Amino acid sequence: MAILVCGGAGYIGSHMAAYLKEQGEEVVILDNLQKGHKAAVEALDGKLYIGDLRNRSILDKVFTENKIDSVIDFAADSLVGESMTDPLKYFENNVGSTISLLSAMKDHNVKYIVFSSTAATYGEPESIPIVESDKTVPTNPYGESKLSVEKVLKWCDTAYGIKYTALRYFNAAGAHISGKIGEDHNPESHLIPIILQVALGKREKIMIFGDDYNTEDGSCVRDYVHVTDLASAHLFALQRLKNGGESAIYNLGNGKGFSVKEVVEVTRKVTGREIKAEVAERRAGDPAILIASSERAKKELGWKPQYDSLETIIETAWNWHKNHPDGYQ
Ligand code: UDP
């Protein structure tokens, strides 16, 4: 039986598909290639259907032409800033796509889904580290759209018996150990790839968004987790559901926080490059500190991150970026 990876040409989705193939799983990828890269699927030798999840006929085709027993869903828009200015895009795509997918799963009798959720479902944290039972009060439409899907999933379990696991990631980072696939967004907005673009001379400097937060050095603190470790958690989650596990929600992070300034410093060490940095205004909607407790995932899924040091995460990202300075082009 095959696993359908929706959004499998994107950053996390492509690492998921690569990991599944390495574990001997049969994989089918569905991606509309709006943000995803055909070259990523080619690099991992994946089977690709090009189409949008909101298009029911492509879903019927994929489910009819393949023996699919489970789905991992990454297909979404994921920029916090953009979601603030265009919330409808986020609800239409992120919620609409998954509803269409669930409806097709129901009709094709597919009973397991692992859903890509986010730390943004929590909003401003009530305490650190964040645990799954903490309040979810998203401060942006991106987080709200993912939380809405979690609610849809719950009712689809009750009504149709579709079992789900929602994985709330903290800051996904790094690249595949082979260097064949990695992170390529256009325009790039994430911290580590932007710092590496400075290291490559493609940008003049990194802007540190705020150094007046209530943190040790004043810059924001985040929990960076390697993209392949995220992938392994998804497979554990799927196996648990297939073994009769109940629907559940898990945080995925390393439980360690690094400030923006620390990330810049570690990147200087890893790359041996100077990397000019300048403090700028705060970015709207950024909480000061986001750190996960992933104890539940470790205990219930048996998840154990392999690339849990920031140096290793940045080394793998650097390996990708220096060999692909223009991404997949
Ligand atoms: N950040 C920054 N400069 C940049 C991009 C990001 O200072 O050019 C900061 C951002 O404010 C946040 C952290 O780096 O505190 C991680 O941001 P990113 O966009 O990578 O991920 P997010 O936390 O938004 O998911």
TrEMBL record:
Catalytic activity: UDP-alpha-D-glucose = UDP-alpha-D-galactose
GO BP annotations listed: galactose catabolic process via UDP-galactose, Leloir pathway
Keyword Isomerase set for record: yes
EC number: 5.1.3.2
Catalytic class of the enzyme: isomerase
Top-rank taxon: Bacteria
Gene3D superfamilies tied to this protein: NAD(P)-binding Rossmann-like Domain, UDP-galactose 4-epimerase, domain 1
Keyword annotations: Carbohydrate metabolism, Galactose metabolism, Isomerase, NAD
Coiled-coil portions: none
Assembly with partners or alone: Homodimer.
Similarity remark: Belongs to the NAD(P)-dependent epimerase/dehydratase family.
Protein name: UDP-glucose 4-epimerase
Origin organism lineage: Bacteria, Bacillati, Bacillota, Clostridia, Eubacteriales
